[in-house]
């Protein structure tokens, strides 16, 4: 049985339409909806932690839909390179018609990074704007600027896992 959320909902607002959070729980979906969010983006793969600390995705999806939220799942393993398919999916979500989205993972960092890569590929913000928005939210992404620039220009390689990629 799932326990109630251990802490109040803690959001980090990155842009007016995008925020990140640590793990969310079914009991928080109505509050998320009341805050004006339209979509939940789950970035954690299932079974990263025990069920009492990480509710199964299907339960989160059901409660999100019941609360009137859309639900997307783009799983990224902690410490792993971001697959091209994940970055392309994020670009689609954050492209021409973005919805107010709350993305979550264990700490919020993978969610932020996925947003940054997807936003660069979609071209909705320039690389320097991505870095600035992240900085205003308390995250340092300057070291990823070459990746953002490459994605924004559509040049190869698509994305490279390097020492910088493992920093966050």
Automatic annotation (TrEMBL):
Domain called Beta-lactamase hydrolase-like protein phosphatase-like: residue spans: 13-122
Transmembrane segments: none
InterPro entries documented for this protein: BLH_phosphatase-like (IPR005939), Prot-tyrosine_phosphatase-like (IPR029021)
GO molecular function terms noted in the UniProt entry: hydrolase activity
One Pfam match: BLH_phosphatase
Protein name, per record: Beta-lactamase hydrolase-like protein phosphatase-like domain-containing protein
Organism: hydrothermal vent metagenome
């Amino acid at each position: 049985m799932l326990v109630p959320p251990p802490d109040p909902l803690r959001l980090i607002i990155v842009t007016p339409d995008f925020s990140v959070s640590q793990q969310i729980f079914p009991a928080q979906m109505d509050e998320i909806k009341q805050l004006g969010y339209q979509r939940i983006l789950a970035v954690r793969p299932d079974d990263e932690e025990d069920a009492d600390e990480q509710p199964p995705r299907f339960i989160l999806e059901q409660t999100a839909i019941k609360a009137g939220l859309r639900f997307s799942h783009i799983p990224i393993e902690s410490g792993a390179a971001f697959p091209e398919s994940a970055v392309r999916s994020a670009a689609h979500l954050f492209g021409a018609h973005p919805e107010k989205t709350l993305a979550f993972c264990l700490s919020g960092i993978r969610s932020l990074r996925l947003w940054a890569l997807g936003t660069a590929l979609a071209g909705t913000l320039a690389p320097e704007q991505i870095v600035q928005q992240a900085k205003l939210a308390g995250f340092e992404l300057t070291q990823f600027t070459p990746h953002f620039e490459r994605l924004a220009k559509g040049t190869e390689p698509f994305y490279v896992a390097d020492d910088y990629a493992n920093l966050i």
